Amino acid sequence: MDNKLTARFGELLKRRELLVMSGGFSPLHARMSEVLGYEAFFMSGSQVCAYVYGYPDVGLLGLSEMAEAVRRLTTVCNIPIFADADTGYGNAVNVYHTVQAYIRAGAAGLHIEDQEAPKKSGTLAGRRLISRDEAIGKFKAAVAAKKDLDADFIVCARCDSIGSEGGNFQDAIERSIDYVEKAGVDAIWVNTLTKREEIEEACRRIPVPVIAPYYGPRPSPTFEEFERLGAAAVLY
To answer: Cα dihedral sign for 76, 90, 136, 97?
Structure first.
């Protein structure tokens, strides 16, 4: 892995200016994004499932397939690849090996969600979360794995509490803060935010860069609004 890309991705997340990432599944998407001037590319697990295998986004793909999907992207472009790693493909031990596999495949960062396995799509009903303690343990393993191989690699915890069974916005904020303070993750993705006020509160209270996709009523916030609300990055 080119450590410069992992360090570069961290710099992009920490700067004041909003990072806008295009997303997709194919090397062509990644290469086109680089040519068009995007500074980073998001590899979507749901798109790898749908477009490469014809599967729904319900956790059917495993680590080896997803690591290979990362490798296909990193061989054709020179911008940081931020890659979906679902639930880490198992328990804390699996998460450790997932992070190291993604680093070896050339990713600059990954996100792991706190859903139960098998997971559901992050935008659909019926999602259930693992306990907060179990999630913290998995994220600790992720952080340990990157420190052992590339300390600049970005571990992002995705919190799916909003819209999950028994979950809500406040639980998402509290979990996210714990993932930072107790596990040491580098960034947080608060999933399915539906209000601009939620974006602002999440970015203000969570003490690391926050990825804040918007799933509320149209129109979506402009890039200038996202930046003013405090988001570190958005992806499409």
So the answer is: negative
Based on its alpha-carbon atoms, the radius of gyration of the chain, rounded to whole angstroms, reads 16
110: tokens are 């990954």
Instruction: Please identify which residue in the block is written with the tokens 């706190």.
Output: 114
Other CB atoms within 10 Å distance of the CB of residue 72: 17
> How far is the C-alpha of 50 from the C-alpha of 216, rounded, in Å?
24
Nearest alpha carbon to residue 95 among 48, 156, 41: 156
Considering only CA atoms, which of 146, 158, 36 is closest in space to residue 101?
146
CA separation for the pair 210, 231 (Å, rounded): 6
Q: What is the pLDDT of residue 126?
A: 66
Sign of CA dihedral 29, 19, 234, 57: positive
Q: Which of 137, 134, 156, 150 is nearest to 210 (CA)?
A: 156
Annotate 50-113 with DSSP letters as a single string. IIII---SSS---HHHHHHHHHHHHTT--S-EEEE-TT-SSSHHHHHHHHHHHHHHT-SEEEEE
Backbone phi, then psi, for 82, in 5-degree steps?
A: -105, 120
pLDDT digits (tens, 9 = 90+) for 114-162: 998 776 665 656 688 999 999 999 999 999 999 999 999 999 999 999 9
Please give the C-alpha separations between residue 91 and each of 45, 57, 97, 135, 235, in angstroms, as whole numbers: 19, 19, 10, 9, 27
Can you give the pTM of this predicted structure?
Answer: 0.95
Residue 11 tokens, joined: 């710099």
Say if residues 73 and 41 touch (Cβ distance below 8 Å).
yes
